[in-house]
Amino acid sequence: MSFDLNEVKNVLVVDDDLTNRIVLCALLKESGYDFIEAKNGEEAVQVVENNHIDIILLDVMMPVMDGYQAAKAIKSRQSRFIPIIFLTAMTDEAALAKCIDSGGDDFLTKPFNHILLNSKIDAMLRIARLYKNIEEKNAVIKEKNLQVQQEMILTKKLFEKIVRNDLRGDSTGLQYSMSPMSMFNGDLILAERNQTSGLDVILGDFTGHGLSAAIGALPVSDVFHSMTQKCFSFVDMLTEANSKLIELLPTHMFMAMGLISVDRSNNVLSVINAGLPDMYLYRNGEIIHTFKSKNIPLGISKLTSSQFEIEMHTLEYGDRLIGATDGIMEANNPEGEMYGLDRMLKIFESTDKGEDLFDSILSSCSYFCRGAEQTDDITLLEICHLENIEFASDKEFSNEQRVASDWALQFSLDIKSLRQFDVLPYIMQAVNQLQPLESGRTSLHTVLTEMFANALDHGILKLDSSMKDTPQGYMDFYQEKQRRLESMQDGSIQISLNHELNEEGGGRLSLHLMDSGEGYDFKNTNTNKNQYSGRGLKLVSSLCTEMKVLGKGNAVAAYYNWNKK
To answer: What are the C-alpha distances in Å from 335 to residues 104, 143, 154?
Structure first.
């Protein structure tokens, strides 16, 4: 709304002397102003309350309420700017300063020059117009800011709903703390239950801060949750997430990240560190392994699944993995000193109880910063390997819209297919569509995984499971597996699944796997649960109604019975 320069202004003349009021009003009328008179400060306050006044000419010495008191009352009660020019016979500096301190905007000493009076009135009205313009623009800005704030809050809630699957709790072994620098967090934690009833977790740190940094969380979250639930391997999931980030993000943005996967079937931890600070495996009061960054962050360059370097380590119950973004090490105290890695490592050395480690690191960093301005997103994560875990929403994936039926599937994979193609996620997707199991999906995936691993690792690649008796042997085993798979010229695996309904309202799922290998002495396979190898067939047998090793050891048949309830 613009201010009309031709609009007649209303001037309030406040003076207890009638002669002074008459002279002032005559001058104002001559200059084209309208005016209202008041004999004292109290009347002036009431006139301003009941009329639109553009400027006030205010005497100082008056009965009932003097000019100082009137100015303070008017300024305190009015939200808009009304200029006040004091008219006073006093010339000492203290009295003039008191005029300004009381809320006056200018003063004019008596006797006054009418030209100077007009000049001061014009100047004050120009200032009033500027105030009015600023107030109008501020109102528009305030309205826009409110709208933006509401949209940001809505967007933040949407982000949290999309990226969050909060699996924290004493019963899952997962806990983390995220302290964003602004409304939107450039750090990211995604967690999903994997098919071994363990956890797959992504700890991410996007370049930058705020909304621009958080944007990348959406495609990563979508890929992570959907592919993990569909039983894809975490390296395939990371490959797809990397492709999405390259496609969507500008070239200067990327995501440093750590992928942590806990395999509860084999008690093995797998870590891919791509640009994050070191992560630490803590056991019995000391760091037993450091997972350093050996991969480039996501969103920089195209990567195949085989290009990710994975570190693996066997787990014991009570082990804790600690990971953090660089915000915790770069957190500043009021003197500008960084918290640093050394302070964090001293917490590992000084903490006797593992269950206190996470809280001790957070408390140490918080005490160090002591209210200093936060300069980066700060995130700390801990995963504890528990013997027994329980998820808050511990339910199997099911498809209640499907009706159980009789069906059969067959797959035949030659060595090229085995080298390039992970068939298990597609089998599981097909089973989930065809067979609405109310429970057992995780068990079924474990059975398929173990049977397939036995056929590939032992039947075709002729690997010895005893290599996995040590943490380093575990790494050597998978490196040798990859080398043999790449160099093998012949080999195949036949997979067949057959489902038949029974009269009780349940069904029987038969799984047969046969490899082209020479077979192995399955009767002497070590199935000691305290070892890290040789437990695959025993695990299959424990999960199924029946299991048979056929022929020369190159074929396995397993039967999984289920009931309607």
So the answer is: 43, 38, 37
